[in-house]
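Consider the following assembly input.
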Amino acid sequence: MAIRGVEIDIRGLAHRYTPKNPLTFEDVNIQASPGESLVIIGRSGCGKSTLLHIIAGLLDGYSGTLKLDKEDVKKPSSRWVMMFQAPHLFPWMTVEHNVGVGLHFAGWPKEKIRERVAETIHLVHMEEYARNNTQDLSGGQQQRVALARSLVMEPEILLLDEPFSALDAFTRAALQKDVRSISKKLGINLVMVTHDIDEAVLMADRTLVMAGSPGKIMHDLMVDLPDPRNREDQVVQDKRAHLMQIFQDAVNGALSGDSIAEKYDGAMSEANLAGIT
Ligand SMILES: Nc1ncnc2c1ncn2[C@@H]1O[C@H](COP(=O)(O)OP(=O)(O)OP(=O)(O)O)[C@@H](O)[C@H]1O
Ligand SMILES: [Mg+2]
């Protein structure tokens, strides 16, 4: 696998929207290797989207350091692109035109655009619909086009803010699998926010559990499972139970960011998991 992703190094990050607002989150530390997939889970309002926007260079007002590929991030870049819950496509344009629009504005020659767009549409399995208008596509197909539009710029980090939450279970499962396998094939980092514990286990190399107000990262759980992952696999079920327990303790305030690592590291054996539903 070629690695196109970058090192993520976030230290002591804290944020507030205005001096009059309370802290959105504080003391956020995240280190990730090139190509690693991070999934952030946490209750509504703990600052997950704000954190993603900061990583994407779309928001400032923070203290601490945020380095991607060893450089401070101060503004948006095509190296780290964000995908949202709604696909935000141009409905009157075809799939091809939607996917190529960024390259067009970047001044790429037509022939190069055509090639790159065709490759990317192939990657997301949308060849059959390349000439269709996006308004005639299903929600899942539209999200595939949005994914292609993000990938066509050859990003090194793909930031995803609950991208599948409006989709039905089958479409969602197919996209979860495809996005993980595409990210591994391209060797890019994923940083994804979700409320769905299953999704976290199916897509992450590591899951970060956020909780509290201001938000904090309460736990960092390795999800070292082989691919492809299926919801019904016992190892997936076990990891899900483990993560659910950590998540519940974190949101119930039963654990602080300091004590939670002590409680679970080493203590959470497979035997312990048997009793958790
Ligand atoms: N533009 C803004 N100005 C002031 N406060 C904001 C702004 N946007 C968000 N907030 C507040 O910051 C906090 C974190 O918001 P954020 O959207 O990051 O949470 P979240 O974890 O993504 O929530 P959800 O799971 O509901 O999407 C919330 O209390 C929210 O009300
Ligand atoms: Mg959010």
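The chain is about 35% helix and 20% strand. Ask yourself how this observation constrains the way the partners meet.
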